[in-house]
Write a structure and sequence with these properties.
With 108 residues, the protein is mainly alpha-helical. The protein has 1 helix and 2 strands; from the N terminus they run H-E-E. Keywords: Signal.
Length: 108
């Protein structure tokens, strides 16, 4: 009789292991399918976030380009005035005159 009860215990234990394995597989399937569903939402949200970030970058780049362009124009204008004053000063000096910066003519 001892032999029969031992075999029954082994078969019950084997059945419990199979049920545990099936339950674990089923739970894993349920959890992973719900995480996949959530992943699509995250991807859509991520795509929207990337789109908004790109728009912000384009706006910042345009603003930075405008500021840089304005700064270049200011520097160019300043260099142009300096070069013009230097040129007129040299031309007036060649003729024995002084360059008047206020009236911007040779005075002598």
């Amino acid at each position: 009789m001892n032999n029969i009860s031992t075999q029954t215990t082994f078969s019950t234990t084997g059945m419990t292991k199979k049920l545990s394995l099936a339950a674990t597989f089923f739970i894993a399937l349920v959890v992973s399918s719900s995480s996949f569903a959530y992943q699509f939402d995250v991807d859509a949200q991520g795509e929207q976030a990337i789109k908004e970030h790109r728009q912000l970058m384009v706006q910042h780049m345009a603003s930075a380009e405008q500021e840089y362009s304005a700064e270049l124009n200011q520097d160019f204008d300043k260099q142009m005035k300096t070069a013009e004053s230097k040129f007129l000063d040299q031309k007036c000096e060649q003729r024995g005159l002084d360059f008047d910066t206020r009236s911007e003519v040779c005075d002598g």
